[in-house]
Amino acid sequence: MNDMTPPPSGGMLPDSPSGPPSGSPSGASAPRARPLYDGQAGDLAKISISNALLTLATLGIYRFWAKTRIRRYFWSHLSFLDDRLEYSGTAKELLIGFLVAIAILAPIFVSFHFMELWAGLDQGALGLVALVQILVIFTLIHLAVFRARRYRLTRSQWRGIRGGQTGSSFKYAAMAMGWSLVSALTLGLAHPLYRVRLQRYLMENTWFGDRTFSFKGRAAELLGPWLLVWLFYLPTLGFIYLWYKVRELRYFVSQTEYGGLSFRSDLSAGSVFVVYLFYGLAMIFVIGAMAALAAGLVPGLSEAYMDMAGGDTEAMLANEPLINLFLVAVMAVVVVTFSVIQVLFFLHPLFRVVAHSLSVIGEEDFSAIAQSRQGLPGRGEGLADALDVGAI
């Protein structure tokens, strides 16, 4: 199933028949290997349909189990050197994290309400309240992103060795807010500096086993591509930003190291654009089909309902449960359809093209890597889930 040569004793990377790209750390003879994703659309369709139906049936409670099932599928179908990744997170951890986050967020949003009452009709006070709310919400979002990443890393393992993340979520949030302000004051020109500083903090606090990654990127090397985005964003209707994000990802990957290993990505903007294109076309097709179906069915159903009721109020009330049941069925069809489309036309193909674009270059004795001694967070990414900024 995997076309890569199994690793020799000690876990060294195999030699690549085609040789490494230029600039690899060990010269022309540096070994190279790629991860393999072998997920199947049919399997994901079954999982997505059952997840959507059970989430509807439980009024949303099952979504923590749904997310866990999807993650375990993606992780278990991604392999490197013939060994698959594992995801050990549980739905219970996600649920507890969410409940804790709600307990924290509730008084914050209640205080927002009282701040608005205090401001009254004073435009200056309302503006100040709005500014405070924006700052608090964006700070919470950055806190959530950092903590969610830490949770996912600690629940991800390969060959029994798990990942990890150190550092302070509050420091990360403060850095993000500070560099966002700098970027805003420079009309966006400092965006590469903002991105590189955050990426360095993340990677230098990212662990696999008892060893950390390193990052040597410089904002100056992204400034040229970003200037093109800054100049041509509107003329290209924003599509150039997708090109930049792919270029940024390739650069970040190439500037990351782990022991004797370096990384490369040959991801192309075209391949990512194709994923977005087919996802958009699928959504447009489904929305159009549902609109056409509604246009054809609703008038007929409405007329049939009125005829059946005969203008009698009691008859209308008697038939109300049937109408409600029909609406619930329609909602279920819509939710299931969009859930399946998102997984099959977006997450699945994007995961594949990104995973297959990566390569690992160099030599590392994986058998010498010890298990991390860092403590594990006891609950899941509740804040990210509550603020809807989580990931698969």
Q: Give the tally of β-strands.
A: 12
Parts with pLDDT < 50 across at least 5 consecutive residues? 1-10, 15-27
Oligomeric state of shown chains: single chain
Give the spatial strand order of the biggest sheet: 2-3-4-5-6-7-8
User: Helix fraction?
Assistant: 55-70%
Main sheet specs: 7 strands, antiparallel
Inertia-based shape:
globular
Distance between the termini: 25 Å
Structural class: alpha+beta
Number of domains: 2
Radius of gyration: 25 Å
Give the integer mean of the pLDDT values: 86
Helix-strand pattern: EEHHEEHHEEHHEEEHHEEHHEH
Strand content: 5-15%
Task: Report what the structure shows.
The structure is a single chain. With 392 residues, the chain is α+β, with helices and mostly antiparallel strands. The protein has two domains: 33-87 and 264-359, no CATH class; 89-259 and 375-392, no CATH class. Helices cover 62% and strands 10% of the residues. It is built from eleven helices and twelve strands. It has helices at 41-57, 63-76, 91-119, 123-154, 169-185, 191-204, 220-232, 239-254, 269-309, 313-357, 382-386; strands spanning 32-33, 36-37, 78-80, 83-87, 156-158, 161-165, 206-208, 211-212, 214-215, 256-258, 261-265, 358-362. It has a seven-stranded antiparallel sheet. Strands 1-12-11-10-9 form a five-stranded antiparallel sheet. It is globular and about 75 Å long. 25% of the residues are buried. Residues 1-10 and 15-27 have low confidence and may be disordered.
